[in-house]
Amino acid sequence: MAAQPLLTGIWCPSVTPFDQNNRLDIDALGRHFARLSTSGIDTLLLMGSIGEFASLTQQERLQLIREARQLSPLTMVANVSSTCIPDMVQLAEAAWQNGYDAVMVLPPYYYGQTQKQLLSYFKALDKQLGGKWFAYNFPARTGCDLTPALVAELAAELPQFIGIKDTMDCLSHNRALIEETKKVRSDFSVLSGYDEYLLPNLLAGGAGVISGLNNIVPELFAEALQAWRARELEKLTQIQQRIGQLMAIYTIGDDFVTTIKIAVARKFNSMSNHSRNFGGELSMEQCEAVDRLLG
């Protein structure tokens, strides 16, 4: 029997709450995780893009890894991406010490990378991470693409490399990743990084989605996966259309990270809407648009 992917389904890349003094708010994170833990989703991703990892100090990231694991029984993955490999290794070691199920890593960013460089980088990193890891493909932020051929080559060679988050607004790229990796590994997870690609990802044989909207409507995505497994086409159609409508939230305001956090704060009153991204505050009219969208 072919091995199945270890980590699949519906993931939430959690926001990172800050208090009014711009410090980590672990109590608010606990309230957020408590709600997510009962929503039906499968996995929490700590310090992803929506989690503002790039604005956190190394000590803040270590603190989050230590304290967040105690806040939810769900499967948990920590993004340890950095431009400094010793920092990444330190974060990964903290993740293993605190019982994380895997870590996630971006390719090098700022400097452009060739496919040859990316292969060399990930092979070297694999030897140092000390456990299971996901790659994070986000060409709009890194300036380089993890191509299906490259990912399949790495998957064939590195058994600890167990999956990828593909944040690329291109269905054919997601599909090609699924097809190419299935040729070499039956236990490899390809997850879409775009919310509305959950159903196309599953139809192509993928593993699920890592969706920012799960901070707000995790039950909707959990329900979609249940409908998929039950082959309830009419229900799936309705949910897909609702997800498509909700995608409009990413067009409100200048900064989608701040917008998602504001939406969480307004809908659940569980955390401050403070973000470390500058200039992303919403006007009253924009806040009202968020409220109308979420119903």
CATH class: Alpha Beta
Strand tally is 8
SSE class: alpha/beta
Write down the Rg: 18 Å
**Proportion of strand residues:** 5-15%
Task: Give, in order, the helices and strands.
Answer: EHEHEHEHEHHEHEHEHHHH
Number of helices: 12
Q: What is the number of domains?
A: 1
Query: How is the CATH topology named?
Result: TIM Barrel
Helix content: 40-55%
Low-pLDDT parts are none
Shape: globular
* Known CATH architecture: Alpha-Beta Barrel
Main sheet, how many strands, which sense, barrel? Answer: 8 strands, parallel, barrel
Query: What does the oligomeric state look like here?
Result: single chain
Q: What would CATH call the homologous superfamily?
A: Aldolase class I
Distance between the termini: 45 Å
Widest sheet, order of strands:
1-2-3-4-5-6-7-8
Q: Provide mean pLDDT, rounded.
A: 96
GO cellular component, one term: cytosol
Family: Belongs to the DapA family.
Binding site for pyruvate: 210
Keywords: Lyase, Schiff base
Describe the structure.
The protein has helices at 26-37, 58-68, 85-97, 115-129, 139-142, 148-157, 171-182, 198-203, 218-230, 233-246, 256-268, 284-294; strands at 9-13, 43-46, 75-79, 102-105, 133-137, 161-166, 189-192, 208-210. Helices cover 45% and strands 12% of the residues. It starts with 8 loop residues before the first strand and ends with a helix. The protein is built from twelve helices and eight strands. The protein has an eight-stranded parallel β-barrel with strand order 1-2-3-4-5-6-7-8, surrounded by five helices. The protein is of the alpha/beta class and 295 residues long. The chain has a single domain (9-218), classed as Aldolase class I (TIM Barrel), CATH 3.20.20.70. α6 (148-157) runs parallel beside α7 (171-182) and α9 (218-230) runs antiparallel to α10. Belongs to the DapA family. Pyruvate binds at residue 210. It holds the Pfam family DHDPS. Keywords: Lyase, Schiff base.
